[in-house]
Amino acid sequence: MEKWENNKAWFLVLPVFIIVAFSAIIPLMTVVNYSLQDIWGPGQQVFVGIEWFEEMLANERLQDALWRQFLFSGLVLLIEIPLGILIALAMPKRGWGVSASLVTLAVPLLIPWNVIGTIWIIFTRPDIGLFGVTINSLGIAFDHTARPLDAWITTMLMEVWHWTPLVVLLAYAGLRAIPEAYYQAARIDGASVWATFRYIQLPKMRGVLTIAVLLRWMDSFLIYAEPFALTGGGPGNATTFLSIYLVKIATGQFDLGPAAAFSLIYFLIILLFSFIFYQALLNVGKGDK
Amino acid sequence: MGLSLKHIDRIVGGERHLKDINLNFESGSRNVLLGRTLAGKTSILRILAGLDRPTHGRITIDGKDVTGVSVRKRSIAMVYQQFINYPSLTVYNNIASPLNVSGMDDAEIDRRVRETARMLHIEPLLDRLPAELSGGQQQRTAIARALIKDTQLLLLDEPLVNLDYKLREELRVELQEIFQQREAIVVYTTTEPTEALMLGGNIVVIDEGCVLQTGPTPKVYRHPETSKVAEIFSDPPINYLRGSAEDRHARLEENIKIPLTGHLEGLPNGKYLFGLRSNHLFLSRTKEDDTEFKSTVELAEINGSETFVHIRHNGTSLVVQENGIHTRKIGSEISIFMNPCHLFVFDETGSRVASPVEDAHNHR
């Protein structure tokens, strides 16, 4: 019954399959391969099973980096999502102000990531930086190269400055898509500003906010270039996030096996949490009383 | 209670949306605002609701000026063309939402929600979210939301336009019954003459921001004051034939000769615009004194259980409404019949000179 003609569709899928194979499947499987072997040099390797995984999971420095990473990404979401929504709500709805604010907001998104780190190094330098000098002249000691808390504050400020505009743009697009009639209906019902936000704007923004949360979660969990340029992971290990630590192992110490095992764990964590966020946001706020 | 609009103008960004609108609405009256898209129907509704302030003019309720009173303090409910419900609330809570603000006790709210839901046949859907409903059910929910509160003013802005044909028919009939039980002033906008006729009550014909004619719906249909009103209040559009009257006869489109009898008797000589609704052009002789003329078929369009035959006669396009479904060969020559007793006559400025007498012929 199954005719050859019926299977022609496979040929149509083939190009996509080949592209995905080279762009994702083969590199990923190479990493899987590395993670199961101990490699000394070209052609010198031995199969070690899940030894690297066990070693990595038990590694205290990795655990520290992991918790640091969770704290960082958690703070990013807690600050950037509400802030982004607030700014979007405050943005002008018509006139020249729309394009002006959109362009201003887009500026941080257009700057290369390592340049952002450099900008912030200069900006926060205690001797010449605008921010560093200002804050020090107020009598507050501030130095992100020496004090862990200051390094964190600077990194957070940089991250929020860099990426909140993305959340704003998404939220703004969501808000603009709400038909005017919804606001009229709310006015006729006598709904307050808060009720209008809670029952019209927020539910209507659900789709774009889901994307914003997922993007900011993944991106902040993978953060590398900006803190690497700004603090290099220090002072000490204060801002050594997962990817910075990973690069240290992989290229600094050239421990390919452990680094590969670590990468896979890293990948699974992001996948798992993205799935959890997606499921949660899909169902949140349905059938409120 | 009576609501009046007095000399209302609305100018937005230098553009005049409404021009000197004067209207009166009585309690318990059903009012249809009929006009084409962008005629100003929604602008009037928004001013009635208090969502917009008129540039000039006043709104009074029982003689009291309410022009600047905010929408929250007015007693109104509105249904929109789009299906507007709170997306995260269940149907039950959506219907209850206008009452929650009023501080009514829960048992009373529950009773009213169920009663209104029953009236609109959405009782089994109370636990669903709007996104889980069909278009018709979503609009029923929105209508229930508008009906639950006993408001002085019930505004409906083309509520059925986004529904499919069957649902529209169904809701039209139900809405008529619901409106009849209401004390409120009902104002309903539509672009469709058929819908206006079904709803009855009073009609306000609007075009380009001006009120053209008001009055009881059937009366305005039968006696449009201008050719423009007749045009807006006919679907398919009324057929116009240019012609002139000379000594007890009129000549339409040069070669159709009709006697000036009945309501046309005594028509002074001169040039006129003769109007004829598409249901008064026939493809076979219906009466002895029918006038026959030949025309070419341009298109035959089937609409429900009717066929609209588009014909061309001496360069003028006409539409003939034919009962039943028929196919016609494009370009073929056919005989058309018309009877002078159905003719509207407008002078060259578009004002009505004569309209058919209300007799048995008009009740087709």
Q: Report strand % of chain A.
A: under 5%
- Greatest chain-chain contact: A-B, 20 and 23 residues
Head-to-tail CA distance between termini of chain B:
37 Å
| Oligomeric state as shown | heterodimer
Counting H and I runs of at least 4 residues, what is the number of helices of chain A? 13
Structure report:
Chain A has 289 residues and is mainly α. Chain A has two domains: 4-47, no CATH class; 61-283, Orthogonal Bundle (MetI-like fold), CATH 1.10.3720.10. Helices cover 74% and strands 3% of the residues of chain A. Chain A has a two-stranded antiparallel ribbon with strand order 1-2. In chain A, 27% of the residues are buried. The mean pLDDT of chain A is 86. Chain B has eight helices and 21 strands. In chain B, α2 packs across α3 (106-119), α2 (91-100) runs parallel beside α4 and α3 packs across α4 (135-147). Chain B is globular, with a radius of gyration of 24 Å. The interface between A and B is medium-sized, with 20 and 23 residues.
Task: Looking at this protein, list some descriptive labels.
heterodimer, A: 289 residues, mainly alpha, MetI-like fold, 2 domains, two-stranded antiparallel ribbon, 3% strand, B: 364 residues, alpha+beta, Rossmann fold, OB fold (Dihydrolipoamide Acetyltransferase, E2P), 6-stranded mixed sheet, 6-stranded antiparallel sheet, 8 helices, 21 strands, globular, disordered C terminus
Element layout with pairings:
The complex is a heterodimer of chains A (289) and B (364).
Chain A lengths: L8 H27 L1 E5 L2 E4 L3 H8 L1 H31 L5 H15 L2 H12 L5 H8 L10 H29 L3 H10 L3 H12 L1 H16 L3 H6 L11 H11 L3 H28 L6
Antiparallel strand pairs in A: 1-2
Helix pairs in contact in A: 1-13, 2-13, 3-7, 3-10, 4-7, 7-10, 10-13, 12-13
Chain B lengths: L1 E11 L2 E12 L3 E5 L6 H9 L6 E6 L2 E2 L10 E4 L11 H10 L5 H14 L15 H13 L5 E5 L7 H16 L4 E6 L2 H7 L2 E6 L2 E7 H6 L4 H6 L6 E8 L2 E4 L3 E4 L10 E7 L4 E2 L8 E13 L2 E8 L2 E8 L9 E6 L5 E3 L5 E3 L10
Parallel strand pairs in B: 3-8, 3-9, 6-7, 7-8
Antiparallel strand pairs in B: 1-2, 1-4, 4-5, 9-10, 11-12, 11-14, 12-13, 14-20, 15-19, 16-17, 16-19, 17-18, 20-21
